[in-house]
Design brief:
The structure holds 2 protein chains of 2 kinds. By secondary structure, chain A is mostly helical. Chain A has helices at residues 2-21, 29-34, 41-52, 56-67, 74-100, 105-113, 117-148, 155-209, 236-247, 252-255, 257-260, 264-292, 305-353, 358-380, 387-398, 402-410, 416-436, 449-467, 472-486, 490-497. Chain A is built from 20 helices and no strands. In chain A, helix 5 crosses helix 19 (472-486) and helix 13 packs antiparallel against helix 14 (358-380). The longest helix of chain A has 55 residues, at 155-209. By secondary structure, chain B is mainly alpha-helical. Chain B has one domain (2-77). Helices cover 73% and strands 5% of the residues of chain B. Chain B has helices at 2-6, 14-28, 30-36, 48-77, and strands at 42-43, 46-47. In chain B, helix 2 (14-28) runs antiparallel to helix 4. Chain B is elongated and about 50 Å long. The chains are: A mainly alpha, B mainly alpha. Chains A and B meet through helix 5, helix 9, helix 12 and helix 20 of A and helix 1, helix 2, helix 3, strand 2 and helix 4 of B.
Chain lengths: 503, 78
């Protein structure tokens, strides 16, 4: 137990030292909220990965690979496909962000649809939907610390230790804002996905060579993918990949990565750097999970596959390293979530209705982060039986931001009426359907509630775009916005000078 | 800001858009994964059902890396 906790303590101390050494005082809210748009491709790539793949990848998706088999690979498909969207969005989002000093996702929606209210609605949906996931992430640390204690701590005691450590870590998130998040993401990402990936490969080799476990040892059910005649329905996997791909960019803490880069080129380079890492890590994790299902004890507790196999193969030292890897991944996700939420509270809620100076915005963001850390830490220590259902519900709801977000970026038509009505109706439909048919809709061939709600949302947006045409002034404003994206080289500065009013 | 934006071509080449569209097709088209449902026959050392997902992942990864390399070359060439 001492060895495993020593590993955790050393890792935690290293992250704090890195943050202390890199301490930079933020002079403006843009510095605090998006790191002054100063990060190059390497930081961007690791920051994206560290926010995208939480510690739950090792438990929830490693466990899914161990219990359900090949269907778990859907997470890899959507995790890579979503980077294609990042590549396509990079230029419009970054150019608008830089030109109009956008700091959050609702800022972009407000600019595109010239609406103050859409900013509030999007922020409320984003903040409320993120809380159950933040609490779940903190509770997942309970599993980690229970294993690190070699069973000495009860689950509730382990949750409290995990919550205490992640809450302490937030001191530096609050102090340093986005700059602290991105800098620590680099160190945490190297541990989580490069060291973690190497450990996964080593464990796969150990299982094959030392334990004689291969794909041939697995039962036929591990290769099943829901198709025609399946319980879930033939479109179930399609729906999971589609909603995962477009839904990822609806989370404020993922979207804000597009504003932290120092240019469009860095964003695209970061995509090219992130995908091979994501591919190698994802394949290693899911193959590990499938093979790990044959290790003694995993069948009964598939979500613990990462810890069980690590301890079996390498004793307490490897178990300690496994714990560090999960903590590194968890920290990145939790920090990103809390930072983005704090920035939204200041920028999109309070700052949307009161005129605040830079210092006031930073103070409100810090208070928001502090409040959220205390609230989520408290909730994580409670027994909340409906929490997971609430989190799934939140996911099906938040992906409704995708319609105004993506169509707003790529299509000149569309207006605030369609965006707000479609998004709100989509959210309501998703929530109602998820409550009635949790998981998937049997009458919709396995589509999830979020996917069905997206089609309602889309229909409203497109209908409003044609039935309520933009005014001449609005059309001119939108044309200028899109002209900024098209502008290139010598023309770019001219176009920027002729840009429409700021948000 | 001009430097930050102009180190990037304004529009994507049509082959890049076509490859990205194909990414979506191979990852999302249900008949493709229905075809490998339950298939554990070994192909290139992997069960066919696993190989399908790995092949899709490699295909998507290659598209993004190729797009970045091609667009970087265009930007450098002016």
């Amino acid at each position: 137990m001492l060895i495993t906790f020593e590993c955790i303590a050393v890792f935690f101390a290293v992250i704090i030292v890195i943050l202390q050494l890199s301490g930079v005082r933020d002079r403006s809210f843009t510095e605090y909220a998006v790191g002054g748009r100063s990060f190059g491709a390497n930081y961007q790539a690791m920051s994206f990965l560290n926010t995208w793949y939480p510690g739950a990848m090792f438990t929830a998706f490693g466990g899914m690979a161990a219990s359900a088999g090949v269907i778990s690979f859907y997470v890899l498909s959507y995790s890579l496909l979503t980077v294609v969207l990042m590549y396509l969005m990079a230029r419009p989002v970054w150019v608008w962000g830089k030109t109009f000093d956008l700091r959050t996702q609702p800022d972009l929606l407000a600019l595109r649809f010239d609406s103050r209210h859409i900013k509030t609605i999007a922020a409320v949906i984003g903040i409320v939907s993120g809380i159950p996931w933040l609490v779940l992430g903190m509770q997942a640390l309970g599993t980690l610390f229970q294993h690190m204690s070699l069973g000495a701590l009860s689950f509730s005691e382990a949750v409290m230790v995990g919550v205490g450590i992640i809450a302490l870590r937030q001191v530096w998130t609050v102090r340093m804002g986005m700059r602290g998040v991105v800098i620590s993401d680099m160190a945490q990402g190297i541990i989580a996905y490069i060291v973690g990936g190497a450990v996964l490969v080593g464990l796969i080799v150990w299982m094959i060579v030392s334990q004689g476990i291969t794909f041939a040892s697995l039962d036929a059910g591990k290769f099943a993918i829901p198709g025609i005649g399946s319980k879930e329905g033939p479109l179930y996997v399609f729906s999971l990949i589609l909603t995962g791909t477009i839904g990822g960019w609806c989370w404020p803490y993922i979207f804000v990565r597009l504003f932290t880069a120092d240019g469009v080129h860095s964003l695209k380079r970061s995509a090219a750097l992130a995908v091979p890492l994501s591919l190698a890590f994802g394949v290693a994790l899911l193959v590990f999970g499938m093979l790990g299902s044959q290790v003694a004890g995993v069948a009964a507790k598939p979500n613990d596959v990462w810890f069980i196999v690590s301890q079996e193969a390498g004793g307490p030292w490897l178990l300690g390293l496994a714990g560090v890897v999960v903590l590194a991944a968890s920290m990145g996700h939790t920090d990103g979530n809390i930072q983005a939420t704090g920035a939204q509270i200041a920028n999109d809620l309070v700052g949307n209705y009161w005129t605040l100076d830079q210092r006031q915005l930073i103070i409100i963001a810090k208070l928001g982060m502090l409040g959220l850390t205390i609230l989520s830490s408290w909730l994580a220590c409670l027994e909340l039986p409906a929490l997971f259902q609430l989190a799934v519900l939140a996911y099906q709801g938040i992906i409704q931001l995708a319609v105004p977000q993506f169509l707003g970026i790529f299509w000149k038509r569309g207006n605030k009426y369609g965006a707000i009505t479609g998004m709100t109706a989509g959210f309501a439909v998703a929530v109602v359907l998820e409550l009635i048919y949790p998981g998937y809709l049997p009458w919709a061939y396995g589509l999830t509630s979020g996917a069905v709600a997206l089609s309602v949302n889309l229909a409203i947006y497109v209908a409003a775009a044609y039935l309520l045409p933009q005014s001449r002034e609005e059309r001119t404003r939108i044309e200028k916005l899109f002209a900024l994206i098209e502008a290139r080289r010598s023309t770019s500065l001219d176009a920027l000078n002729a840009s429409p009013q700021s948000v | 800001m001009a430097d930050e934006v102009t180190a990037d071509p304004g529009r994507h080449a049509s082959w890049i858009i076509a490859w990205f569209a194909l990414d979506a097709v191979v990852a999302l088209a249900p008949p493709l994964y229905w075809a490998v449902d339950g298939n554990r026959a070994s192909l290139l050392g992997l069960p066919t059902a696993v190989l399908y997902f790995v092949a899709v992942a490699v295909f998507i990864t290659a598209s993004i890396v190729a797009a970045y390399l091609a667009e970087s070359r265009v930007a450098e060439g002016g």
